[in-house]
Amino acid sequence: MNDCIFCGILAGEIPADVVAESETVLAFRDRNPQAPLHVLVIPRTHATNVAELADLEPETVAELVRVAQRVTADAGYDSYRLVANTGEDAGQSVFHTHLHVLAGRTQAWPPG
Ligand code: AMP
């Protein structure tokens, strides 16, 4: 997975502002934040998207959500949005599973 930027972060080859981690996931700040809190939670196992991860490691999907909840609570927020863009038309640009965790501002619905 040499060309996967998130695998590079997991390997310590690419710097990241890590805010939380567990045995199976890592959480770090998005480099282009769209809210006061914008964190990405990724599995240590490479999977292209969250559905593929659900097939490979269903427990890790649950862990992504648990760590997202912990990160928002630690930052003092009780409202947040989780986004898992899946496929280019949905806005996915990095093909290693990630949950966007967005909090700290009022968020419009539907998203663009
Ligand atoms: P998506 O478009 O849903 O695939 O989201 C990918 C996200 O990864 C974008 O919000 C980018 O800003 C973010 N991103 C890409 N490279 C890095 C990086 N090296 N460190 C932090 N965030 C990144």
Describe the structure concisely:
The protein is α+β, with helices and mostly antiparallel strands. The chain is built from three helices and five strands, in the order H-E-E-E-H-H-E-E. It has one domain (about 5-105): HIT-like (HIT family, subunit A).
Describe what this molecule looks like in 3D.
The chain is of the alpha+beta class and 112 residues long. The protein has a single domain (5-103), classed as HIT-like (HIT family, subunit A), CATH 3.30.428.10. Helices cover 27% and strands 21% of the residues. The protein has helices spanning 5-10, 50-56, 58-74; strands at 18-21, 25-29, 37-43, 81-83, 99-103. The protein has a 5-stranded antiparallel sheet, covered by helices on one side. Strand 2 (25-29) and strand 3 (37-43) form a beta hairpin. The chain is globular, with a radius of gyration of 13 Å. It binds adenosine monophosphate (AMP). Adenosine monophosphate binds at residues 5, 14, 16, 30-32, 40, 85, 91-94. Adenosine monophosphate binds next to loops.
